[in-house]
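Quick check before the chapter quiz. The format below is the same one you will see on the exam, so make sure you can read both the input and the output lines.
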Amino acid sequence: MSLIRVFAVAMLCAALLVASPLCAQQASAPNPLDVVPDKMPFNIPYGPPINLERAEALIHTAIAEANKHDWKMNVTVVDSGGNLVAFQRMDGAQLASIQISEHKARYAATWRRESKVAESAIQGGFNYLITLDGVIASRGGIPLVENGKIIGAIGCSGGTGSQDEVCCKAAVATIK
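Here is the expected output.
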C-alpha cells in the first residue's frame, strides 16, 4: 500500500512541476483591458434625429427582406437619442421579440455600435459587459449613419440573431 502512495505523491509532484510554468505564463499574460487606445473607439458623432417618414421606410425595407425568407420579425427604429420613432410587428412574430428589437436599436444608437460588437466581446471573454446598463449581446441592432453622424438605429428580432441582422442590413443599405 505504501508503494502506491509513494507513486501517487510522485505523480502529483510531477503534475505540479509541469503545471506551474503554465500557470505562471497565464498569470503574467497582459490583460487586454489594460491597453489604452490612441483614439476613442466608435467615436461617431450624433446627428439630427431620423424622422417618422424615413423610419417607416426603413421598417418597410426590413419587413420586405423578412417576407422574402418567410421570417416573422419585430422591427424598431429609434432616433439618435435612442427614443422610439417607429415600430412594426409582423403577424406571427414572437411577442418576446417586441422588447428585444427595441433594446437592440437603443443599444446601437446609444453605444454607437452594432449590437453584434457586444455579442462578440462577451463570447471573447469580456464578460464584464453584461454588468453594464443597456447592453444586449445579440446581433440585429445597427446604427443608422448619414453624413458621418448617427441619426438613429434599427433593431430586428424574431428569428435567429443572423436572420435579424440580415433584415437590419437590408434596411441600412438604403441610407444614402
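If your answer matched, good. The helical segments are 2-28, 52-69, 96-110, 115-123, 161-172.
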